[in-house]
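Field reference: sequence -> structure
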Amino acid sequence: MTTDHTDHRPASPHINDALLSRESWKIFQVISEFVEGYERLAQIKPSVSIFGSARPKPNHPHYLLGESVGRQLSDAGYSVVTGGGPGTMEAVNKGAYQGRSFSVGLNIELLNQEPNEYQDICLRFRHFFTRKVMFVKYAVAYIVLPGGFGTLDELSEILALVQTGKTRKIPIILMQEAYWRPLIDWFKNTLLPEQMIDESDLALWQFAETAEAAVALLQDYYKDKEFPHITLS
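Structure field:
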């Protein structure tokens, strides 16, 4: 015997025209962020997107590493793109700003977070997802410095985009292997046996300990390749 649940289904929601109008206007906010991002960033190629924590202070080893990474990349001819905030982001922008290429900040509107002062191009975003597209759009590589939840979010995003073919395979460099090793071991010892990832996915990233080593990995990867025009498919 079957029971007809039709009478228990909720009625279609009433359409509130005023609310619908306000929600629809948010589409234009999103479009405006994309348009400004594309227009301002089209000149920065080739660029490297760098992720890291907002927390390290200027005397912290992670801050000093970030500053070195930014400077080395900038002097090697790569524009440098960060989240534009304090901590490691500030360090990377500072190093890049002292070099010969563009220092770019993709700033997000958050409480108590202001753009750092070391940016040739400073963009502000209200929406995380439009900002994430800008990190990917012109990148020829990703460098991930030690960080927390936000950095893990960005790392997961770029691994998923490359794994699924939504972007071309480009270098993903994790700085300081000891920091990332427990996570990588979990990928290998848990995700792989559970068939949540493939063996080939464990080759999506490389490790580097110094800024010089990271730049050398990029130069070696592109020595016989053209810089790709990265887009979301």
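Note: The longest helix spans residues 17-41.
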